[in-house]
Each structure stands twice: as structure tokens, then as C-alpha cells.
Amino acid sequence: MENDGIRCAVNATMSPEMPYAVNYHKWVFSSFERYLKNNAATLEIGAGHSGYTRLLRSISNRVIASDMDRNVVDSLTREFEAVQGIEVIQMDGIEENKLRTHVDNIVAINILEHIEDDMAFIKKSHSALNKGGVFVIFVPAFPLLFSIMDKQAGHCRRYRKRQLEHALTKNGFTVIHSQYFNFIGFWGWLLNKISGSGLNSNAVGLQIMLFDKLAWMFKKAEKLTFICGQSIILIGEKKP
After folding, report:
1. What architecture (CATH level 2) is domain 18-238?
2. Three state DSSP letters for the chain
């Protein structure tokens, strides 16, 4: 199988509560929605819990929801078998022999940090896009936050904004938007690192549920993301 690089060791890619963080998913989506090509073909890499798939379908004519896990693909297939405009495929990163088409948007939310050869994935994403296509990357920020939770989630690294901007421009993209995301989450992750909390701990699960309920309030602190944030959102455009 052609793939984009060995994944780092992993126990579970996310907390069990994360699929139910509906308000958080809507918040993340709203942060990059305006940059996507509307009424177009969108490839979602690592659809996983499907929290973003329906949101992407709301603005896209066609969504290709991909995942490398056979069980996840089977679950997504059952979930979307009656939904027009959503196609589910099993694919590790971007495999040209399986994708067999170019797309207008590629969305990779919390994917790049799992891939050892992340530059190869960025390069393949550029090749898979139509000219003028949009590449959305959402990744964990700041190496200093790297903790036991990152290791358990199979993260190879956390990123600096300038590092990621350089990676995209080096591979032919024009960076059209770059920002930190989730100012409050930065401090929550730092606290969990200091306390040694694990990904599946009750404390982390409670934090996710509480954060999701109060997401409307935490959004108000986003004006401070020029300082820091838990994640990075980067939007690249393939030159026309």
C-alpha cells in the first residue's frame, strides 16, 4: 500500500468524549469555512468520528470521506449510505490509485501530526488539488506542550506556526491564512502536561465535556490567539 509515512506509536487517537463535542466541532469548522471552495469537491482526510463530514457536505457538492481504519470506514459507510454527495473510501493519507480524481478542497484536521513524513503528505496534497484549490491544516501547536497525551494519541510532534507556513510554501502553496486557535485550550493542555493526565483519564474527559458546553464563552478569548493557542489553523492555496 502506498502511504505518506509511518505513523507514530498510538494507543488511541483521541479521548472517548471527543466524538460528542459537537459545539467544539462547529467552532473549528467556522474558523476555516469561509476559505473553502463552495459547491465543490472536498476530500476529508481521517474522517474518524464524522464530526466534520456533514458540516463539509453542507457547503460541498461532493465529500470524499477517507480513513485508514477499516472499522471506521465500515461505520462511516453505514452512517452515510443514504446521504447523497458523501462517498466513503479506505485510504492511508492520499493514495492516488484510490482517489483517482482531483479535488477543490482538502481538509486534514488533526492528521499531520500523526505522520512521520509529513512533508510527503503535504506534497501529495498539492498534487491532488485542482489549480486554485484549498488545503486546510489543523494541528496541535507548540512543542513545549508535548506531553504523555500526545504520545498516547500517536503524535509525532506539535508545530510552530512559522514552521508550518514554510512547509507549505516550500511545497508550492500560497499561505492565505494562518492563526493559533483556542487560547483557553493552551492553558488546559499545559495543566494536563504538568499534572501528567492521560488521554483516557476521567479528568480529561470531564474537561472536554465542560469545554464543549462552554465553547460559546471561550470563543470570546480568541482575540488573544495572537499570543498562543492549543492548535494552529493554516490555509494554503494551490497557485492557479
Report:
1. 3-Layer(aba) Sandwich (3.40)
2. CCCCCCECCCCCCCCCCHHHCHHHHHHHHHHHHHHCCCCCEEEEECCCCCCCHHHHHCCCCEEEEEECCHHHHHHHHHHHCCCCCEEEEECCCCCHHHHCCCEEEEEEECCHHHECCHHHHHHHHHHHEEEEEEEEEEEEECHHHCCHHHHHHCCCCCECHHHHHHHHHHCCEEEEEEEEECHHHHHHHHHHHHHCCCCCCHHHHHHHHHHHHCHHHHHHHHHHCCCCCCEEEEEEEECC
